[in-house]
Amino acid sequence: MTIIQSFPLMGILMLFLIAFSIPLLKNNSTVKFLSIISFVTCLILFSISLIHTINNGSYFYRIGHFNAPFGIEFKIGNIECIISVLFAFVALMVTWYSCYSIEHDIDENKVPLYYLLVNILIASLLGIVFSNDMFNAYVFIEIGNLASCGIVIVKDKKENIKAGFKYLIMSCLGSGLVLLGIAYLYSITGQLNITYIHEELAKNYANYPQAIRIILGLFTVGLGVKSAMFPLHTWLPDAHSNAPTSSSAILSSLVLKAYVIFLFKILYRVMGKDIIVNFSILNIILVLGCLGMIMGSIFAIFQKNLKRVIAYSSVAQMGYIFFSIGLGTELGFIMSIFHIIGHAVTKSALFLCAGAIIEKTGQKELPNLKGIGKEMPYTLGLFFIASLSMLGIPMLPGFVSKWYLALGSIEANKLMLIGVILISSLLNAIYYLPIAINGFFGEENLKGKIYRSKDKSIKELMPIVILIIAMLYVGIASEGIINLIKIGLV
User: Fold this and answer.
1) Tell me, what's the pLDDT at 1?
2) Residue 454: domain span
3) Residues 295, 237 contacting (CB under 8 angstroms)
4) Is residue 436 part of a domain?
């Protein structure tokens, strides 16, 4: 066992240790610096881990003195390392941006609490990604549950507290269903380790068809609530639109994705393809994914609040991920992971741009943001580039996802699904393009506006710029990323 193999655990432990040292610091600048350093270190550790798994293959890392199934272990492979690098990178960029804006959203004396919650949240999400033990993953889910609600409520406004409690109630409901699913699995297999559970199920799943159907339902609904699967998304618009800007970016780009990763583990590692093909769960996920793609966009079209538009867009984009899973093919699984990557960097950039616009103008409603492109050309320009990926413009990750999903639909002999993809793309254009068009064009819109009078400095916009560059890279280097994911499936 080499030191490099312990890097994923070291990264998670470091985030927790730094989180609980933050309250001891009195200076907010020191708190911000320490949080940024923790994510920089994690990014380095996870990048080295990714290189190690590419060169040497996946491995199991034992935590403590006991081997599985009695001890806790991490499963560390290409997919886990790619997701961990993604989470560390996006968390770093969002935290960097928040250093310039967080005091605008929350009281100065709550800044240390905010960064404590962010570090705990990212550590718990990484724990879900790496854990090969069901109950250990559940513990991380509960920790993440409280931390994610905390970064919504920390703003301490009436609407935030209301949204945070709604999120907490729904999230606890989802967690409860997940715990029931774990208990049911344990009652059948006598195991909590994912590898050993699968081995037991493979031997005698035919004896428990009804139990497995219930288990799949419990996990799908429980994790569907937590990952905003339509129609279980009702908590999301309020939580994402009312939270501090950096919280919205983290919730949409990272938190939702960790629960989807856990659903992957349930479907493909706990159950395995040979078992789930005997049940209708993938068809149900496919239908709900299609509904999410369409209905999320329709709801977004009728929103007047900028952040609520982006929040409902997240429901639609999560629909693409569930659509991919529901196809039930290798290509569908690969594209679900790829879409997680593309959406994470794109949606975090969109939320940060929206937050910058709201911060500088004091306006949230779209009719009041006409002509903002003249006052904030750089910010709206970055927003427009990110929105092009949501529309599916070639070379961008959104297009790559939609192209391969269309191919996956043909491969699965479900040609009607191509129409769903096209309709969803059209609906995306209906609510994203007017924001840029009304911001940059129209004599009445631009009248009386002063060029760059409200734009943020280049220094403050740099994290968003880097996210946009990362988005472009994901689109251009999509073939290599897809191959890495495919290798990780072995």
Assistant:
1) 60
2) 280-490
3) no
4) yes
Could you state, in chain order, the average pLDDT of each consecutive group of 10 residues for the chain (490 residues)?
A: 83 90 84 90 92 87 78 86 93 90 81 89 92 89 88 80 84 89 88 85 82 89 88 81 84 88 88 82 89 89 86 88 87 89 91 86 79 82 89 86 88 85 88 83 72 78 92 90 82
Residue 325 domain-assigned (yes or no): yes
Distance CA 38, CA 203 (A): 44
Question: Taking Cα atoms as reference points, which of 387, 235, 230 lies closest to residue 321?
Answer: 230
Residue at token pair 């429901």: 315
The answer to whether 267 touches 325, Cβ cutoff 8 Å, is yes
Residue pair 32/116 in contact (Cβ under 8 Å)? The answer is no
Number of domains observed in the structure of the chain: 1
> Could you give the CA distance from residue 67 to residue 118 in angstroms, rounded to a whole number?
32
